[in-house]
């Protein structure tokens, strides 16, 4: 009677096998569930045929909680409606690189076109949160506690030397991991780690909070695992595989980025980018003794002078790379636009939601009318009217459900936009890395030039005294030594800067490519989804139009 | 023509003096609303065009200018004269919106007035009414005179339905408060019908409420689609190249759909929500007739009481051979005649109501059927356009991805 057996529509019909659907309706004639799980798209778009899936548990429950809001549970009203949807399949648009779950999937989500990555496999699951007591003597009597999470990794990357790993980590460890990666991989677009969000934890129930955190951690680690460079990082590997206490030491937060850059120099001096196993304490690395310490002091003083500056701004970096500046501006603009679209998309979802709700309420009102007219109907015309109302009611309730399903899918598609807002943050960080590296270079350069001019002055003064000025000469010697060290440091800084620039460039290319792919697939998914549900709604209403066509002959 | 007109309207009455061989017809249209006057005195006038072959109308077509209060006059007159018949309802007399006179409000009112007149014109009894002829044919000055006379003669404004309801309701509360039991028919079938009418109003009102909200939702969604489209287009210009184009096209489609949604919102308002509201009013009009019937019944009962007492008096007078006897007998006869008349009136109302209820149900089924049909068609059409619009993007999106896969020059 429903008429959705009509051909020519791009839908597959499936058993809607959920019990909830069945419980919704009690009626005499269950329409025979239409068989078959084939989709038959009539336009030859191979990459996005509408697939239909049997609802799994992680999708929104098809009907019950919300359905119970729409329809009161007295059976008499339920008996008015026909069985809603043996053939009322959940429609999901399915594009090749889109998986409807927030879990990390095994494939690189956006580089499906590149064959070179298809052999890599790393999947990370976060589960089983457990409460543990704080071991070290805490000031608070009774002890505080924290949560640990089980991190399970499946991989075939050779560096791992194994296929499966299980470790327990707490959130603090994740923060450490994130910090260490940020230090070692400057210039890369590093995924942003989940917030510490202390405030929220006090507002929410603990269970909710822990679950939210678990999901966020899984997402975060998944993003790391998908990044072509970071997935191979030592830091990540250690984090994922080494059992027991977290082996990555916490970064000793030395100073602002400027100083960080300088502190890193000695490391760079001796080659090797990511040295795991200890914060690079400058003092530990073999440095030309005095000059090195002087260098450090110089930088501290420089930093101090900057801080003392009332404006409290860092000295301006003269970025000469026009192309970079253009690109940066473009990306800022892009970020703004993505944010706008994201907002409007949210609003769109809300409006669809409201429409669905009102449609449902209208359906309900007609259900009641139907019941009312049928009870003790005196005239035949009343019975006919009741029958018409029933059709309208059924269609309206169905349409209401369709809006809800549509929205659940739309939200998943448009999540991509939110993801990219996060990516923009990572991009900003990477650009900051570059800026601070450039600042380091420029600082060192100006330092060098001032050192040299001091030497010149001293030499000029000293040359006036016949036989030389021993104290001045000694001073000059010291200064020359400082110049030598500073020169090396400057070269290091320049190398670092160039490295970061290169990272930026590669990452930008990767971002552009991935973004195009991601957005394109998002658009496709969105469009197919909207179209599919609109078609279903058209069917529903066409049936009613058919059934009432007698009135307009 | 309004969809709420019954097809083949006006052809019910067979005029015996009809000289034409054609079937009799009487159709009216209310059109061309025009704002007249200024400020507080402003009002809307409508062109009322009558097409008929009824002989009394002296001509196939007539055009007159009428305003809202003229329609009210007609309704009041019919209500007084045709007790027992469900007089078609009028749109509300608005005090606030009147000053704003939005285009939508004017259109809603015009439609309701058109429906009103046509319902009268297609009712086999009402279409014969002299008042209807006056309304349809007389010039404006005559109309104005008629209107001003009305307030003098009929003190109780039957248009004031609220007052009637209050009478009915106060009677109920009297019973609750233990006051004198009101005189009411003890007709169980009629009781059921009354209950039905009262409940029907509630149900219809609820449906209308949600229909109105649905109109709003369409408007809101339309606005949202427009905003979304704009934002997406901006993103498109930012992205550039083929992806940017894809975004731009998507944004354009979204804006297009926004327009369709606004159109459907208007369509829903005029063809779904307003007819429902109209039926709520129609049921209220039935309630007014119910009140009239109650009045007639009470009147008849009171008279019967009075007659009984008069009889007793009369017999007393007969026994005492009073000279008042003659007068009393005359009065008594008069009362009996009145009693007969009131009984006749009451029975007429009952008979008419029975016919009217059947007619009402039939008409409701047809009218609602049309409304539902148009509602479903509108929704189906909208959904199809939406699907088409989105699907039309797919080839372009495909083209984009293939251009992305090939390395750029």
Automatic annotation (TrEMBL), chain A:
GO CC terms of this entry: cytosol; Golgi apparatus; multivesicular body membrane; retromer complex
Spans annotated as Disordered: 20-73
Annotated AH domain residues: 319-546
Pfam families associated with the record: PX, Vps5
Principal location listed in the UniProt entry: cytoplasm
InterPro entries: AH/BAR_dom_sf, AH_dom, PX_dom, PX_dom_sf, SNX2A/B, Vps5_C
Presence of keyword Transmembrane helix: no
GO BP: protein maturation; protein transport; seedling development
PX domain span: 127-247
Membrane topology reported for the UniProt record: Peripheral membrane protein
Swiss-Prot/TrEMBL keywords: Coiled coil, Cytoplasm, Endosome, Golgi apparatus, Membrane, Phosphoprotein, Protein transport, Transport
Gene3D superfamilies: Arfaptin homology (AH) domain/BAR domain, Phox-like domain
Domain of life: Eukaryota
Subcellular location: Cytoplasm; Endosome membrane; Golgi apparatus, trans-Golgi network membrane; Prevacuolar compartment membrane
GO molecular-function term, one example from the UniProt record: protein domain specific binding
SMART domains (alphabetical): PX
Coiled-coil regions, chain positions: 317-351, 441-517
Similarity annotation: Belongs to the sorting nexin family.
Identification of the protein by name: Sorting nexin 2A
Organism: Fraxinus pennsylvanica
Automatic annotation (TrEMBL), chain B:
Record carries keyword Coiled coil: yes
Limits of the PX domain: 24-143
Alphabetical list of SUPFAM superfamilies matching this protein: BAR/IMD domain-like (SSF103657), PX domain (SSF64268)
Record-linked InterPro entries: AH/BAR_dom_sf, PX_dom, PX_dom_sf, Vps5_C
Signal sequence extent: none
GO cellular component: endosome; membrane
Annotated CDD domains: BAR_SNX, PX_SNX1_2_like
One MF annotation (Gene Ontology) recorded for this entry: phosphatidylinositol binding
UniProt KW Coiled coil keyword: yes
Coiled-coil stretches noted in the UniProt entry, renumbered to this chain: 318-363
Keywords from the named record: Coiled coil
Region listing for Disordered, in residue ranges: 1-24
Record protein name field: PX domain-containing protein
Lineage per the UniProt record: Eukaryota, Viridiplantae, Streptophyta, Embryophyta, Tracheophyta
């Amino acid at each position: 009677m429903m008429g959705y057996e009509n051909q020519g529509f791009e839908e597959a019909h499936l058993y809607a096998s959920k019990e909830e659907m069945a419980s919704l309706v009690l009626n005499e004639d269950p329409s025979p569930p239409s068989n078959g799980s084939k989709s038959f798209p009539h336009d030859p778009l191979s990459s996005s045929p509408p697939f239909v899936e049997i609802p799994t548990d992680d999708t929104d429950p098809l009907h019950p909680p919300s359905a119970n809001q729409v329809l009161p549970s007295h059976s008499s009203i339920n008996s008015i409606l026909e069985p809603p949807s043996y053939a009322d399949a959940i429609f999901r648009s399915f594009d090749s690189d889109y998986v409807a779950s927030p879990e990390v999937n095994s494939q690189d989500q956006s580089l499906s076109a590149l064959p070179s990555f298809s052999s890599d496999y790393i999947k990370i699951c976060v589960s089983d949160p457990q409460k543990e007591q704080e071991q070290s003597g805490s000031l608070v009597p009774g002890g505080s506690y924290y949560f640990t999470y089980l991190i399970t990794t499946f991989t075939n990357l050779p560096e791992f030397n194994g296929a499966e790993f299980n470790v327990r980590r707490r959130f603090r460890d994740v923060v450490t991991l994130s910090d260490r990666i940020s230090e070692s991989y400057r210039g890369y677009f590093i995924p942003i780690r989940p917030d510490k969000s202390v405030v929220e934890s006090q507002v929410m129930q603990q269970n909710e909070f822990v679950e939210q955190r678990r999901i966020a951690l899984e997402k975060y680690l998944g993003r790391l695992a998908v990044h072509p460079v970071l997935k191979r990082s030592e830091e990540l590997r250690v984090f994922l595989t080494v059992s027991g206490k977290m082996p990555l030491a916490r970064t000793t937060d030395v100073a602002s980025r400027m100083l960080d850059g300088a502190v890193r120099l000695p490391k760079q001096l001796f080659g090797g980018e990511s040295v795991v196993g200890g914060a690079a304490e400058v003092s530990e690395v073999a440095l030309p003794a005095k000059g090195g310490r002087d260098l450090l002091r110089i930088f501290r003083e420089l930093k101090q002078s900057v801080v003392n500056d009332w404006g409290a701004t860092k000295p301006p970096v003269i970025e000469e790379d026009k192309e970079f500046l253009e690109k940066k501006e473009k990306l800022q603009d892009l970020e703004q636009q993505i944010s706008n679209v994201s907002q409007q998309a949210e609003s769109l979802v809300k409006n669809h939601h409201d429409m669905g709700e009102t449609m449902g309420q209208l359906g309900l009102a007609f259900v009641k009318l139907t019941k009312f007219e049928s009870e003790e109907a005196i005239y035949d015309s009343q019975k006919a009217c009741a029958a018409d109302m029933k059709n309208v009611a059924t269609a309206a309730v169905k349409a209401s459900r369709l809006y809800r399903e549509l929205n659940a899918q739309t939200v998943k598609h448009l999540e991509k936009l939110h993801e990219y807002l996060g990516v923009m943050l990572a991009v900003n960080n990477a650009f900051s890395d570059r800026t601070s590296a450039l600042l380091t270079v420029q600082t060192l350069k100006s330092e060098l030039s001032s050192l040299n001019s001091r030497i010149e002055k001293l030499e000029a003064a000293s040359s006036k005294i016949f036989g030389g000025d021993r104290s001045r000469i000694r001073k000059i010697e010291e200064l020359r030594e400082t110049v030598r060290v500073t020169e090396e440091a400057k070269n290091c800084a320049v190398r670092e800067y160039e490295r970061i620039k290169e990272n930026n460039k590669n990452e930008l290319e990767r971002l552009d490519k991935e973004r195009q792919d991601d957005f394109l697939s998002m658009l496709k998914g969105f469009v197919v989804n909207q179209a599919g549900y609109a078609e279903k709604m058209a069917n529903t209403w066409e049936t009613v139009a058919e059934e009432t066509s007698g009135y307009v002959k | 023509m309004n969809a709420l007109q019954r097809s083949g309207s006006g052809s019910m009455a067979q005029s015996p003096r009809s000289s034409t061989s054609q079937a009799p017809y009487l159709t009216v249209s209310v059109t061309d609303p025009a704002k007249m006057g200024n400020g507080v005195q402003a009002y809307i006038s409508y062109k009322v065009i009558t097409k008929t072959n009824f002989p009394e109308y002296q001509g196939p077509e007539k055009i007159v200018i009428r305003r809202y209060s003229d329609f009210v006059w007609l309704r009041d007159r019919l209500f007084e004269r045709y007790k027992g018949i469900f007089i078609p309802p009028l749109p509300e007399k608005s005090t606030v919106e009147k000053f704003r006179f939005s285009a939508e409000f004017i259109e809603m009112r015009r439609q309701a007035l058109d429906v009103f007149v046509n319902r009268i014109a297609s009712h086999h009894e009402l279409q014969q009414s002299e008042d209807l002829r006056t309304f349809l044919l007389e010039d404006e000055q005559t109309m104005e005179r008629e209107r001003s006379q009305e307030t003098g003669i009929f003190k109780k404004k039957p248009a004031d339905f609220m007052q009637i309801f209050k009478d009915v309701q106060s009677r109920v509360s009297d019973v609750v408060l233990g006051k004198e039991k009101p005189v009411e028919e003890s007709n169980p079938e009629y009781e059921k019908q009354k209950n039905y009418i009262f409940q029907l109003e509630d149900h219809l009102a609820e449906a209308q409420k949600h229909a109105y909200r649905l109109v709003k939702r369409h408007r809101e969604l339309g606005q949202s689609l427009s905003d979304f489209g704009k934002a997406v287009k901006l993103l498109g210009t930012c992205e550039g190249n083929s992806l940017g184009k894809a975004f731009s096209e998507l944004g354009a489609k979204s804006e297009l759909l926004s327009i369709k949604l606004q159109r459907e919102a208007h369509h829903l308002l005029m063809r779904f929500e307003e007819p429902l509201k109209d039926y709520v009013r129609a049921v209220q009009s039935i309630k007014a007739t119910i009140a009239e019937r109650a009045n007639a019944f009470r009147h008849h009962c009171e008279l019967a009481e009075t007659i009984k007492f008069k009889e007793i008096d009369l017999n007393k007078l007969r026994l005492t051979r009073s000279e008042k006897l003659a007068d009393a007998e005359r009065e008594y006869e008069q009362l009996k005649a009145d009693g007969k008349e009131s009984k006749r009136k009451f029975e007429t109302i009952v008979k008419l109501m029975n016919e009217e209820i059947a007619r009402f149900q039939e008409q409701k089924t047809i009218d609602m059927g049309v409304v539902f049909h148009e509602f479903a068609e509108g929704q189906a059409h909208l959904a199809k356009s939406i699907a088409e619009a989105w699907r039309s993007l797919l080839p372009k999106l495909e083209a984009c991805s293939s251009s992305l896969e090939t390395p750029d020059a």
